[in-house]
Amino acid sequence: MPVLEVLARTRRPLTGRQIHQLAGVGSESGVRKVLARLAAQGLVHVSEAGQAQLYLANREHLAWPAVDILCSLKATLLDRLRDQIRSWPTPPQAAALFGSAARGDGGTASDVDVLLVRPDTVNEADEAWGRQVEVLRDRVKAWTGNHCQIYEVDGTGLAEHAEQGEPIVAEWRRDALSLFGEDLRRVLGAVAPPRRKGT
After folding, report:
1. Angle of helix 167-175 versus helix 155-163 axis, rounded to 10
2. Distance between CA 15 and CA 63 in Å, rounded?
3. Which of 59, 30, 29 is nearest to 45 (CA)?
4. What is the pLDDT of residue 194?
5. 1/4 Cα distance (integer angstroms)
6. Which of 78, 105, 148, 181 has its Cβ near the most Cβ atoms within 10 Å?
7. What is residue 164's predicted lDDT score, i.e. its pLDDT?
């Protein structure tokens, strides 16, 4: 899918190396093997440019409309998540998608990871909050077939995670895609860096 997504985003021929760099996953040799399979199936045109091979999506292929839909699944998921959270009576301070679903390298067994920053004024045991979170978990399962893993923390807890240098914070900084409210990277950027031992 990452290779197809790169090809779907452009109408100019690309080398295998360029596609690998844009896809951001796997090895260059692995990407070239994928391209060879796609070319054998007729979904990709291959041309020569000196010693390099150039690859271009074959949008005339009967299967291309289906490929186009598959390549837009991530954008559709983001839209549905945003719409769902936007409808909540008690909105979060911030919400973001992270992990493999955000990076685009997940599989059928991968969780869809969502971070919810609960307002400090809302108790963790609040029933209304809990119901809307559970509905979100169920909707994601229905939309994707994957389990939705929700990481829930309040604003104070988020700051504590960042200050203590929790490993998951680095993942949030790197991969998080904003769904609602404050931009997570901006919020984390305002938090003091982790304290070093002995200081």
Report:
1. 110
2. 23
3. 59
4. 52
5. 5
6. 148
7. 87
Mean pLDDT within 57-75: 92
Label residue 86 left, alpha or beta by phi (over 0 means left) and psi (-120 to 50 means alpha).
alpha
- Neighbouring residues of 175: CB distance < 8 A, sequence distance ≥ 6: 98, 99, 102, 103
Phi and psi dihedrals of 122, rounded to 5? -105, 120
112 vs 141: CA distance, rounded Å: 9
Q: What is the mean pLDDT of residues 65-79?
A: 91
Q: Which residues of 104-117 are buried (b: 16+ CB within 10 A; e: fewer)?
A: eebeeeebbbbbbb
Q: What is the mean pLDDT of residues 25-33?
A: 89
Residues 10, 13, 17, 23, Cα dihedral to 10°: 20
Instruction: Please compute the mean of the pLDDT values over residues 13-35 and round it to a whole number.
Output: 91
Which amino acid, one-letter code, is at 176? A
What is the Cα–Cα distance from 43 to 59, expressed in whole angstroms?
A: 8
* pLDDT for 106 beyond 60: yes
Instruction: Judge whether 45 and 58 are in contact, CB under 8 Å.
Output: yes
